[in-house]
Amino acid sequence: MIDKKLFTKLQKDYESYDIGRRIIIKHSNDILKLSKQAIFALHRENIEDSKKKLDEAGKELKYLEEKISQEKGLDREGSYLAAVEEFVEANLFYQFITTGKVGEIKGFNIGTNSYLGGYSDLTGEIVRRAVFLATNRKYKEVAKCRQAIEEIVGQLILLNLGGYLRTKFDQSKNSLRKIEDIMYDLELKRKK
Question: Which residues have CB under 8 Å from 140's CB, separation 6+?
Fold first, then answer.
């Protein structure tokens, strides 16, 4: 009754995918961890350590891109997508801190959703940066943070985002509200 040749092929395909999936999960976790460490280093103004962590994460991502090209479907694994999005966020934040601008991350196959999620999450990191700057009385820099968040939200609002990206967009709008509150508080303190 059962086509044993077909079942053997299915078993082989499944086992191959499962091995690939385990590799993706392991290396994705490494990328996620390194990207978070890079962001943490940036918040501590340790640019050199952040760059080192981003370079390590980039090597891991290149390795995974090669693995993914060999096995159909691995690019849709949740751990991989989360790692790429965190990598994007960390790279965009690095660009923002070191150049004041954010743009394309060259040399990687990064999908649209990963960019959009990374940009949305970037706004939260910029708010944290603004709090640090405000604490150190660098008010002009706080204003630059507000402008950056406003630009990001302004671009995201042009899209009809749905699903998890809608939730991330709502979080970016919340970041805009937070930075506006910070700016308001700074203005009140200046007038005293």
Answer: none
